[in-house]
Amino acid sequence: MDPLLRAVQLAKRFPSAGDASAPLTIFENLNLAIAPGELVAIIGESGAGKSTLLQILGTLDSPSDGALYLKGNLISALRDDERAELRNREIGFVWQFHRLLPEFTALENASLPLRLRGVDPSEAEEAAAERLKEVGLAGRLRHRPGELSGGEQQRVALARALVGRPSLLLADEPTGNLDQKTGETVFHLIEELHARHGLTSAIVTHNPAFAARCPRVWEMVNGELRSRT
Asked: Are strands 5-16 and 19-34 parallel, antiparallel or unpaired?
């Protein structure tokens, strides 16, 4: 089966303070392939480059070298506007911090990706209500983030990530800001939604128990991506 997401010889370097001739290399010659429907975990120590890699996979950042393909199409060379459109249609993101707009309700927050796509507001909110119901928040549609618990806020973020029916879900420490019990609930929900929606998912996590529940685990070590399974 052809991979849904494939990275070839990726490298990421940042300029070093005071010495442009000696850039800081986060990783280089990095290769990966994720098949359609796979659920993979990416683990590693803080500063290993996990979040940087995830941002490149999601086209939020560009590699210094190498190529990135989604559904067989080269996407690392797209223009900024083309990458933004691709993200809106194909990629859902969940972060450690929910990044909800505080002045918007749960329904308005979850509908934003569709509204940015130009979908009629009523249609966008109907789709958002379905996703919020799916994550157990049918009774909280009109609540603002400040009126929700941390776990509920993260579930709104998950509904927002899935409202546009993406093919790829990228999650960066989605339970890292939650207590163990709430984190377990959110991770279990991600597993359920991954299977129900036929997603391809990559999750960065520091939680070894959660990582072990993913069929494939990669570890970032000294700029290399090593298979643990």
From this structure: antiparallel
